[in-house]
Design goal:
Number of strands: 3
Strand order of the largest sheet: 2-1-3
Shape: globular
Number of domains: 1
Strand content: under 5%
Radius of gyration: 22 Å
CATH topology: Rhopdopsin 7-helix transmembrane proteins
Order of helices and strands: HEHHEHHHEHHHHH
Length: 329
């Protein structure tokens, strides 16, 4: 009995999608390009919001939090995926695997909650515009952001702690590009029904509930927008929500597929491909979506670039902006 409960495996072997790994150089180059674009795009969003005082508002404060989160998120997984794309297999100690699981779920849960908070911000801005500055003042926004980060840290701590108590006696090959709980449960040499139940409950609480909240919020937003008589006003209101709604659909679609389903229907090959979408490509798409579909961000980018160019040429003229009412960013 004691022998069975003892963890014999000291390291895991991460093994990616074998059909993809036939094109080693191409996959490595593509992943490295996407990683650099993700880092550059999210860093650019943070810089633009910081430099242009017209963007010092709750909406862009939360967008900065999202960009910071995406930088950490990609840095948690992509270096491991790059190593696998070169060597086809990546040994990882049990401790390193658990650390990766912790940060993966910590940042993922935080993003789920942060997207829900951003939906609430849009609801207040469109449905209760006269109370916007009161309901979404600096203290409230800071409290909401901190709550998202702390909730993500605590939820991930519980799941990681439960996973760390499982005995692993072999095999030790994880059929994925990085460590995650579902494929790890398959390797445990004990009953994992409790872990699966807790994972499903956690998925329901931190994925489905925020997602349902976002859907309900947008129902009220759409109903309010349809009451606007001006076509230009309706278009402007829709444009402020389009970027966020696009990000929500991409992110929640992949996360719900991965975590909010019975373990009996897990498909290794499908999971590998879907995991690449939400860990690699989604963080790169977010800054593109917000910059391409948001006139304020595009305008701020042009003015910041013009100001930088003017300063480098010695023109001495900065960007003239109105004083911000929001002082957290």
């Amino acid at each position: 009995m004691d022998e069975k409960n003892e963890t014999c495996v000291t390291e895991f072997i991460l093994e990616g999608h074998l059909s993809l790994l036939h094109y080693t150089t191409l996959i490595f180059t593509l992943l490295l390009t996407v990683y650099m674009m993700s880092l550059a795009g999210n860093s650019l969003i943070i810089s633009i919001v910081k430099l242009d005082s017209r963007l010092h508002s709750p909406m862009y404060f939360f967008l900065c939090n999202l960009s910071i989160l995406e930088i950490f998120y990609t840095s948690t997984t992509i270096p491991t995926i790059l190593a696998i794309s070169l060597a086809k297999k990546k040994p990882l100690s049990v401790t390193s695997c658990l650390v990766q699981i912790y940060f993966l779920h910590f940042l993922g849960v935080t993003e789920c909650l942060l997207l829900a908070v951003m939906a609430y911000d849009r609801y207040v801005a469109i449905c209760r515009p006269l109370h916007y500055r009161t309901l979404m003042n600096g203290t409230v926004c800071l409290s909401l952001a901190i709550s998202c980060w702390i909730s993500g840290a605590l939820e991930s701590l519980v799941l990681t702690a439960m996973t760390s108590r499982l005995p692993f006696c072999g095999p030790k090959t994880i059929s994925n590009f990085f460590c995650d709980i579902p494929p790890l449960l398959k390797l445990a040499c004990t009953d994992t029904h409790v872990n699966e139940l807790v994972l499903s409950l956690a998925g329901g609480l931190v994925v489905l509930l925020p997602f349902l909240f976002i859907l309900m919020t947008y129902v009220w937003i759409i109903l309010t927008i349809l009451k606007i008589r001006s076509a230009q006003g309706r278009q402007k209101a829709f444009s402020t929500c389009a970027s966020h709604l696009t990000v929500v659909c991409i992110f929640y679609g992949t996360v719900i597929f991965m975590y909010v389903r019975p373990s009996s229907i897990y498909s290794s090959d499908q999971d590998k491909l879907v995991s690449l979408v939400y860990t690699v490509f989604t963080p790169m798409l977010n800054p593109l979506i917000y910059s391409l579909r948001n006139n304020e961000v595009k305008g701020a980018l042009k003015k910041v670039l013009a100001s930088s160019l003017g300063s480098s040429m010695g023109l001495g003229q900065g960007v003239k902006t109105r004083p911000p009412y929001f002082s957290l960013v």
